[in-house]
Every structure is written in C-alpha cells, then in structure tokens.
Amino acid sequence: MTYVSLNSVKKSFGPTEVIHGVTMDIKEGEFIVIVGPSGCGKSTLLRMVAGLETISSGEIEIAGVVVNDKEPMDRNIAMVFQNYALYPHMTVYQNMGYGLKLAGDSKAEIDQKVQDAAELLQLSELLNRKPRQLSGGQRQRVAMGRAIVRKPSVFLFDEPLSNLDAKLRVQMRLEIRDLQRKLGITSLYVTHDQVEAMTMADRMIVMNGGRAEQIGTPLDVYRKPSSLFAAQFIGSPAMNIFDARIENNTLQMGETIIAAIEMPDQAVKLGIRPEHFVPSPTGAIKISIKATEPLGANTLLHGKLSGMGQNITVSMQGVHELSEINPTMAFDVERENIHLFDASNGKRLS
Amino acid sequence: MAEAQGMVQKTGAHLWITHVLMITGVLVIFFPIWLAFVASTVTQPEIVSPPMPILPGDHFWENYKAALFSGVNVPVATMLINSLLMAIGIAIGKIIISLLSAFAIVYFRFPGRTFFFWLIFITLMLPVEVRIVPTYEVVASFGLLNSYSGLILPLIASATATFLFRQFFMTIPDELAEAARVDGAKPMRFFVDIVLPMSRTNIAALFVILFIYGWNQYLWPLLITTDPEMNTIVMGIKQMFPSGDDVAEWPVIMATSILAMIPPVIVVISMQKLFVRGLMDSEK
Amino acid sequence: MEKRVIFRGWLLPICLVAPQLIISVVFFFYPAAQAVWQSLFIPDPFGLSAQYVGLGNFEYLLSDKYYRASFVTTAVFSILVTLCSMVPALFLAVCADRLIKSSGIYRTLLIWPYAVAPAVAGVLWMFMFNTRVGIISWYLGQLGYDWNHVLNDGEAMGLVVVASAWGRISYNFLFFFAALQSVPKSVIEAGAIDGARFWRRFFDIVLPLITPTAFFLMVVNVVYSFFETFGVIHTITSGGPQQATTILVYKVFSDGFVGQDLGSSSAQSVILLVLVGALTIIQFKYVEKRVHY
After folding, report:
1. Chain C touched by B91 (CB under 8 Å)
2. Is the Cβ–Cβ distance between B180 and A90 less than 8 Å?
C-alpha cells in the first residue's frame, strides 16, 4: 500500500534546477534511505517532503493527500536534524513536549507521551537536563524523542548520525532501525554514508546530480547497479572500473580475453568488485601486487594489471603479508560478478 | 639557581612598582568623585573658606535630606524619578522596537526589506545633537514638551540595537527555526518561545548600555523640559547653580551629583560582565 | 550573509518593522530633512516668513570668522580629548595586564567614571577648579599660579578637555585591556626569549598588535568629543570665555536656541551631518577591515 508518493518532483532555485524529477512510491512502514554525495540534492528532497522547501513542480502525497501547499506541521511529519536542533534554553522534557504543547494537548497528555517516549529511549533520568549538559549520543536520542512523541505518520532524518563518533554511530544506527521497526512508522533517511544506506534501508534511492540514479533494495543495488555511479558509490572498497570492449562476443581488456559475452561489438566500462576476484592459477586477470592492507578478516591487495598499468584493488579472505604472496597473481571472475556499463552514458548493459 | 632566584625577585619588585602605579592611577581618577562625596558631607561654610577638608564631615544625612526633599528648584527625588523613567523608557523602548524589526529583517523576505535596512543604517550616523532644532519643533508640534514621551521617543530612533540583534539572530542555527516550524510554531510563537529566551543575555547587556545612555542624556532634556517638575537629575544639577553672583549651595549640589551617579554606577558595577560584553558588542 | 527563507508572508514583518520605521521617520528623517530645508532660508526677525537664499547661509557661515574659529576649536578640542583619554588608559591597561590576579579589582574601580554623565563630570571638575572654592585652584594659588578658567582661554580649554577625557579613560581602558589580554602569551614569551626587555617588547611586539584597537578607539573618541561633550562644556564654560570653548555642536545649540538664528543653525547642522557621515563611513570601513583579519 502506497503511503508516501513522489511524482516527478522537481526543485529549482531561480533558474537553476537542482532536482530533476524524482518519482517513487513508498509503502507504509518502509525505511527508505536517500544516499548520495554532498550536493546531490538528497537533503533538498527530504526538506521538500518536510515542507521546509517549496516544490517547484510535481506532487508529494502523504497518506493519500497532496501536501504541496501544506505547512510542515499540517503534514504530520517529524524530523531529526543533523545538528539535532534542540532548543538550547529548554530542558529535555520541554524540548520533547513543545510540539505537543503547540498542538494543544493537555498537560496530562503531554506528560504521558513524553514519559513514554523517554522510557523507550532511556531518557527518563535526563528529562530535567538542558541540551548542553548531554553527550552527543544523548542529544541524538532527545532529537529522536522529540520526533516520536507526536506519533507522526512519517519520520524524516537528515544525516542524524554524522555528528557522532564512529562507535556511537554503529550503535545508534541499530537503535534507530530497531525503534522504527517497533513503531512501524514510514521513514525517509538521508545520508552520505553508504554503509548506513546498506545496513539500514529497506530500499534506497541513490542520488547523483539531482537525479535518482537507482531505487531498490540494498542487495539489488549492490548486485545489479543500474549505473556506473551507483556501482562506484555503493560497496566498500569501491568497485574497480576498467576500460574494455566487446569484440566478437568476447569481453576484452587490452589483449586479454576476460570472458565470453554475447553482445554487439562496442566499447564498455567493466566493473568488478574487489571481493569478487577468485584466485586461480589459470585466471585471465594477472595482477602485480604492490602493497597489502591486512584488515583482519580480509586483506586488500593493491596492484596493477599486468601489461596495462591500471590500478586495481582486490579483497582476499584472511591475512596476507606482502612478503608471503606471489608478486604476480592471477584471478578469475564469475560471469554474474561482471558488471558492464555503456562507455558513453554509464548505463548498465548487463 | 642564583640566576633564577634573581629573576623571581626582580619580577616581584616590578610587580610592586606596577601595583603602586596602578593604585596612583586609580586614586587620581577617583579623586573628583571622592571630593564630591566629601563636599556632600560638610557644611557650606567649610567649603566657601578654602581649602575645603578632604575627609568626610558629619552632615551627610542633613545634606542628602535637603537635596532629596527640597532641592533648589525642585526636590531631587522628583528628578531622580524622572531620570529613572526616562532611562528605563529609552532602554526598554529601544530594545522592543529593535527586537521586532531585527526579527522581521532576519526571518522574512518582504517588499521594501532592503530599503528599510538602509533607512535604519543611515540613522546610525546622526546623533540627536545634529538635528536638535527641527526635532525640537516636531516634538513641540505634537505637544510633547514637558512629557515623558517627548523625553523618550526621539532618543529611541536609532539603529545600533537593531544591528546588534540582527547580528545575534544570524547566529541562531536555521535548523532551530525549522524544528520549530515542524513542531507547529507560527512566526510569533517562534519569536516568543525560542528567539526571546535565547537572546536573554544580549537583551540584558544592551539594557545596561542603554540605561546609562538614557540616564546620562543632557542636551535633549535641557531643551524640552522647561517645567522643573520634569527635569532629569543630570540636567537639573546645572539648574541648581544660581545666576549672577549668588553663592551656590555646594553641599546640596554635590549631594545631588553623587545621587546622579549612583544608579548608573550600581548598574555598571553589579552587571559588570554584561556591561563589558554589551560595550564590546555594540561597537562591533 | 542571509538566512534560508524561513517564514512566509509580508503583512506581519511590515507590522513588526512599523514601530521603528514610524519613529525613525517622525523623529529622525523628517527633522533631518527639515534641517536641510531650513538651511536654505533666512527667517525674518518675527519668524513669520522666510526668504529663500539658496546656499547663502553656507556661504555666510564659511566666511564667518566665529564659525571658522569654532572649527579650529573643535579640532583642537577633539585631538586633546582623544590624546588625554587614550594615553592614560593605555598606560593603566598595560599595568593591569601585568597584574592578572588583581586586575579584576582595578577594573571594577576604573569603570566608575564611565557611568558618570558628562554633565555631572563637568560639575565635579568645575568644583575642583572653581575660582572661589575649588581645592585645586586654591592650592595652585598657594603655589603662586592664579587659575581662572572663567577669564583665561587656555585654562578654560584645558579644563573642559580634562573633564571630557576623564570618563573616557574608563571606556578606553576596557578596550585596551581586552586587546592586551588577547595578545597571545606565546608571542610575548618568544620576545622575552629573544632578550627583549619589557618596554622593548611592548613597543616592538604588543603595540603593533593592538593598533587596530587603538585606531578604532581613536575614531570613536573623536565622535564622542564632537557630540557627547556638550554637557561638559555647557556646565563648565557655556562656550566661553569669548567662544574659546564653543565647539561646533555647542554653536548649533547657541545659535539655534539662544540666538534664534534658525537658518544658520540648520546650515550648521547640515555641515555637521556631512562631517559625522564621513566619520561613520571611516568607522565602518575600518570595522569591515577588522572583520577580515
């Protein structure tokens, strides 16, 4: 059942169009992550859903109602901001209850809702503190609390974890996702961090230059990136991209034949994820290894394609030292892990 | 070791010299106030046969009572109240109109905004002294001579406070206004619930500065208060000197001078931190 | 710098700026325009009609020897007040800066004179130098110096300068002190390691670092001596003797209110207006520069 729908939503600042038409249907209870590099328009898109930016053309519907001209408060949304935007002069309790107070709830109702939310977020002890007396993680929780007390129909998150340190980020990631599942509230979550996108999203929108490059589940995007951009943005370390060509139904790179592929002759971009190289003495791809980065569970090998000089990164299971491994190694790649993109427009070919 | 000790001792001696210089400086600067205080505690004959004493006498209550409740033209108590009303009126009036217009300029885009901005910018340049004659005529034509409105209104038409608040509002994160919007706050709600409480310190600092500005006004009250009942204390002192060859009632005049400086001094000293902050801010 | 557009609507913001707008127009722009207008006329002695004279008032003023003298008086007065208030303030600030622990007490004591109104300061100083009862003039008399600022031009000027500068010392002290406190200690220590003695360090290292503050204070003090010293002059000398202490602002007042010469007074206002405008622009140019530091 569609709950939030974006219908060719566009945004212009003066003559400059920054969002070039995004269309998407979001089901009730879904957790959607909008991911992309800075300046791709992801925050603007979210702010348009929130009602903080006007919509230049297209329509946004929430729960079956077009909300283009509605004030944020009339859209029944709640938003968590990057810097939390807690009111500095109010206590945690007042911060969480402010929206309810404005909505005209009685004191008893406000108290009930704030106490419930505080308990859920383990904030009960902190209700009388001011924001400046809280740690980063606690502030983050208060911002969440302020969002959930109002039982909104949509949650909007604008890079809510980017001000936290790495460890806390992992923890809060889980907490947010857990809470959202528990409450079952439809959520839009903006981030530039592809790990957050992969781990949290039911579905994600990969944005680039004001366009939705791909909309799909994390695994969809990972397995079948629909463009060169999506392929490189999602996955860590990033996918290796090589110039290659199709000739006589074979995929060739330089003089090397990589695989047999039935396709018309053309120049292509070949993408292979570092984790998809399989060591094989007869492998077609020969790499001279220049450096290794043991990460623990796996090791990154940095090297160059033999005879081609192109940089390449390979991820191998286990720990490997540069001194222990063969300076030149050969790899195979399975057909399903070979990504081909149009050399001119970056669209996926197969 | 000996070297190090020598340095410490030298520093100690230097420190003492600095203290002595500083104390001398403070004494010299304080002397006029001290002398006024002494003069306000002795009798007229002690003053008119110089040199006057430089230690306080025992006529403190007598002189201050005479000043406060009889004065020369009008009891000083009346002038004190006038000054207080004027200073508070100017401070509060200026703060209110500046808060409102700064809020409008920062948080709205409305027709004439830039024009308005330049209008108030120009008012920064022209102190009341420059336009006294026509301003006097305007106030007179409104029938505001010898009135509190006449004392206050022309002096609150200045833009310093507006600029100060504008500067402060610009530092309030945008997200706060957006969060308030999402919470359902209309503009004036946001102003009252978020902006005002956040500006408390700035408002207080500005109040201190403006109170002193208002209290210390001289030329304007001199022009528009012809009725002694409306005199402010700062301008009233001069009116206590007799014209011609009569001898001034020094103890009463000096008691009045001390009374005239007590309120601003109390404000400045008790709110020193705010005052210094306000001073530094308003000159930026 | 601008905020993201936050609130919509135009009626509310216009209502919000209305009070300031109305007060500025009624008590500010209208009178200022009036001053410019009146400066072009000479009213008849009964104030019933006025004759248009164009720039006649200005021509007359600029050729008037009293007005020109008033310009010189103002210049001398401003320079003296600025010097007499800045030099002692800097000296005291340097001392206070060395006494970090007790500087708070000294600061509290030194702030006092700032709170004293210029007019009251005038009364205090006049009292000390009063020709009949003044304690200082009496001691000067004992030393064989006959002080009489009522008759002597130079003494009158000296007295109004000191009385005007007195309260400003506090103000300048606060700014110099803040500037000195913000000079990085490491720079001074580096100077000390290089072997520079205290005063050497002060002139070579500290002073250049606080010149922006000094320049700023200079402009502010000149503006102060132009306008806010009216109370001092009115209480001590009333512009005398023989106009020796009649600065420009005082002349606007005495010609306009005492002499009732509206055309001339207005023309003087306009000239002052231009002067202040220029000073303000200098001040803002400077402030702008300071922002870029």
Report:
1. no
2. no
Distance from C-alpha of A145 to C-alpha of A96, rounded to nearest angstrom: 6
Report how far Cα A333 is from the mean position of its chain's Cα atoms.
Answer: 27
CATH homologous superfamily of C66-292 equals: MetI-like (1.10.3720.10)
Which of A134-143, B8-17, B176-185, C190-199 has the weakest average pLDDT?
Answer: B8-17
> Rounded to an integer, what distance in angstroms lies between the CA atom of residue A197 and that of residue A192?
8
- The answer to whether residue B84 neighbours chain C at the CB level (below 8 Å) is no
Q: What is the fold of B73-282?
A: MetI-like fold (1.10.3720)
Mean pLDDT computed over A297-324: 85
- Interface touch A83/B194, C-beta < 8 Å: no
B172 in helix, strand or coil?
coil
Element (H, E) at A245: strand A240-247
The answer regarding whether domain A2-225 maps to CATH 3.40.50.10490 reads no
Q: Which comes out higher in pLDDT, residue B7 or C52?
A: C52
> What Cα–Cα distance (Å) separates residue C51 from each residue in A107, B191, C39, C47, C258?
73, 52, 11, 11, 21
User: HSE (CB half, 13 Å, CA atoms) of C84?
Assistant: 19
For residue A56, CA distances in Å to A21, A23, C4 come to: 10, 14, 16
Give the residue-averaged pLDDT of A332-347. 89
Sort out which chain A residues have CB atoms less than 8 A from B196's CB and list them. Answer: none
**For residue B62, pLDDT beyond 60:** yes
Q: Chain B within 8 Å of A103 (Cβ-Cβ)?
A: yes
Does B54 sit within 8 Å of C119, measured CB to CB? no
The overall average pLDDT reported for chain A is 90
Reported ipTM? 0.86
**A33: alpha, beta or left, given left = phi > 0 and alpha = psi -120 to 50?**
beta
Would you list the domain boundaries of chain C? 66-292
- β-partners of residue A289 are A303
Comparing C-alpha atoms, which of A247, A298, A245, A249 is closest to residue A275? Answer: A298
Q: Residue B156 has what pLDDT?
A: 87
Q: Residue A178 corresponds to which tokens in the numbers above?
A: 């857990």
Mean pLDDT lowest among A257-261, B267-271, C257-261:
C257-261
Please report which confidence band the pLDDT of residue A216 belongs to, taking 50, 70 and 90 as the band edges.
very high
- B181, A78: Cβ pair inside 8 Å? no
Q: What is the pTM of this model?
A: 0.84
The residue of B107, B182, B203 whose CB has the most chain A CBs within 10 angstroms, and thus the best one to mutate to test that interface, is B182
Residues of B within 8 A of A73 (CB-CB) are 181-185
- C166: tokens are 């007195």
Give the mean model confidence (pLDDT) for residues A262-288.
Answer: 89
Q: What is the mean pLDDT of chain C?
A: 85
| Cross-chain Cβ contact B101/C17 below 8 Å | yes
pLDDT at C195 over 80: no
C128:B32 CB<8 A: yes
- CA B42/CA A249 separation, integer angstroms: 116
| Domain limits, chain B | 2-66, 73-282
Half-sphere exposure of C35 (CA within 13 A, CB side): 27
A76 torsion bin: left (phi>0), alpha (psi -120 to 50), beta (else): left
Distance from CA of B217 to the nearest CA of A (A): 36
Q: What percent of chain A lies above the pLDDT cut of 70? A: 100
What pLDDT is attached to residue B2? 36
SS3 A215: strand
Nearest CB to B181; choose among A52, A84, A88: A52
Mean pLDDT of the B195-219 span: 90
- Residue A54: phi, psi to the nearest 5? -75, 160
| Tokens 């809020």 belong to residue | B103
With a cut of 60, say whether residue C96 has pLDDT above it. yes
Cα–Cα distance, A247 to A67 (Å, whole number): 52
Nearest Cα residue in chain A from B179: A85
